[in-house]
Amino acid sequence: MTVATPANPRSHPAYREFAEVVAEVLAPAAARVDRTEVPRSHLEALRAVGYHRWFVPEQYGGLSVPPQVKAAADDLLFGVDPSTATIVTQHGAPVGPAIQAGSPQTLALLPKLAAGKLYGGAGMGHVRSWPQRRGTVATRVPGGYRIDGVIGWHSGWGLTDVLWLGAVDEARAEYVFGLADLHDAKISGRVLPLTAVYGSRTAELTLDGYLLPDAYVSEVIPVADWKARDGRISLDVRRAQQIDPGTDPAGVPVVAPPGPYGLARAALDDALRRYPDEPSLLALSAELEHAVATPLPDPHWRAVLDEIAVRATTAGVVARGGAGLLDGDIAQVRARAAVFFQVRGLAPVVRAAHFATYTRPTSA
Q: Cross-referenced SUPFAM superfamilies, in alphabetical order (predicted)?
């Protein structure tokens, strides 16, 4: 395992340019955006500094940025504007599948994703609930698959163009993954009334006879095989192996999953500015820094950081007092976003890891 521990990722020119846009454009509007919706202008501002290129390999028009620099940028964004972060950090979701599919059609998407001419997103986690719950069903037809059903969660509806989707071929007990055109008339969406990151435009999508052509199919895998790895492989390893199936997981730089550290760090920084000598805040800050620097096997690292984020953002609200619950205060935005993290990608092993972090030993 290669642990990514640069001297200072925040000194990288790409990070500094990104941070300037976040401070000047996104931060002032963050609480309002959380209540309304992420505007397209936010994505355009990030596109202008090349952020969308970070997700795409250089040979397709992308920009090679050290993974620890990207992680620091994503954490900064989650701490400042969780709704925008929820959308844009998923921009790279179609990249690995496009390369995995390897067709001229999918490879042609990559320069457009790098340039920000197309925005990417994901809608595949719902398949893990089958057969207990049906989501999207894939039916083999000439030239591809017909997709019908409901994708429960997709962030960025109205902004995203390319969807990495998953569906179940029930006749063959296989999961089918591929890239879909969100502008197709066979796909409709309804923004969900979430109480956290509402501005992320997280929607329920309905697919009614959508044709997923063979050229856009990235993977067909037995359900049992996919479930055996679900939640046990980090996002970075999964994406690396989509691009190069021969990738050795031990050679993939290890960075903490994006989001929980950023939320927790921003909340604690604000709290410590008000109460710099509060020992409990200092202890929680030290616990956070230790956790982010101490990798654990998946999914336990994510679960530990997610749980600390809940405590840290709650401490941020307490430090603000009653004002922290006003709808224009970023403290409550972060606290609700931290709860949102608890329900993302809930593979059975992930849910169990979350439950385990909530327990506390009792004295005899």
A: Acyl-CoA dehydrogenase NM domain-like (SSF56645)
